[in-house]
Structures are given as C-alpha cells and as structure tokens.
Write a structure and sequence with these properties.
By secondary structure, the chain is of the alpha+beta class. The protein has a single domain, classed as Aminopeptidase (3-Layer(aba) Sandwich). 30% of the residues lie in helices and 23% in strands. The protein contains four helices and five strands; from the N terminus they run βααβββαβα. A five-stranded mixed sheet has the order 1-2-3-4-5. A hairpin with a 5-residue loop joins strand 2 and strand 3. The chain starts with 16 loop residues before the first strand and ends in an 18-residue tail after the last helix.
Length: 151
C-alpha cells in the first residue's frame, strides 16, 4: 500500500542512462538482468505475453552500452488496484538509485492514468529500502500477498 509522504524521493536519472516507457526490450537482456538479481528467468514467449498484458513497463538503459540496468512492469484493473511486477535493477552502487527512479516514475504514471488505484508491489528484498523511501508500507494492516506460479 502506498503512503502519501513522497517528499524524500530522489528520481534524478543518472547521466548516461535513459528511462523508456513501453519501448521494445530484448528478452535476452531482461533475462540477464533478472538472473543477475537472482530472480527467475522466463522463456521469451512468457515474457512477450507478460509485456503484452501489462498496462505499461519501464526500462532504464545505459545509453553507451545499451545494457538494461532497470525494469518494472505494471498491471491494473484500472479501478481499484495497480501492481508493480518484476522490479529489478543492476546490482552495484547505483542499484538503489535505479529502483527509486523506476518506482517513483511508475507511481507518477499510475497517479496520472489510473487515479484511485491502490498500489502493490511484488519485489525482491533488495528493493525494500527504496520502496519504503517511496512511501510503501510492508504488509499494511497485516495484509499478506499470495502468488500462484503458472508454470
């Protein structure tokens, strides 16, 4: 659940990177990033379907190397709920900055295009600090998530 105090967000994109919305993404590069973050990788057909069924997705790309350094996708029922999925960022010194950029931009878009939706996120533990800084509460009011693996 998203709190209302977002005054401490620092979402300045580092020099040499570009944030893209809905641009074509290499499934190989996305899987490489997921793997580097110790998350499950997926077959290209599964990734393609996930992106097609998403309302939008954001990629953070290093302009010089064209490497994918951050990714998040968003789904919504456009009424009550918006969900952030596959939130990942290249491990290293900039990881928290990349996650903060992705989360704050996703929130900005959701607030603009899906007003009234509560926002939830399924994310790895490396993103907890950035999520809290962006106003997320961990399991608010004891709410727990459940997942179902479709494999």
């Amino acid at each position: 659940m998203l709190g209302l105090n977002l005054s401490n967000i620092s979402s300045k994109i580092p020099e040499g990177c570009v944030l893209l919305r809905g641009e074509s993404v290499s499934f190989r590069r996305l899987n490489r990033l997921l793997s580097r973050c110790h998350l499950d990788t997926h077959q290209p057909r599964v990734l393609k379907l996930a992106l097609e069924k998403s309302d939008f997705y954001l990629t953070l790309v290093n302009k010089k190397s064209e490497d994918l350094v951050g990714f998040v996708r968003v789904t919504s029922d456009k009424g009550l709920n918006a969900n952030l999925w596959d939130l990942v960022a290249e491990p290293g010194n900039e990881q928290e900055i990349y996650i903060t950029i992705l989360v704050s931009k996703a929130i900005e878009i959701i607030r603009s295009e899906m007003q009234g939706c509560s926002i939830s996120v399924a994310a790895p533990s490396i993103s907890i600090k950035a999520l809290k800084a962006n106003g997320f509460l961990i399991d608010p009011n004891g709410i727990q998530i459940m997942g179902f693996n479709l494999r």
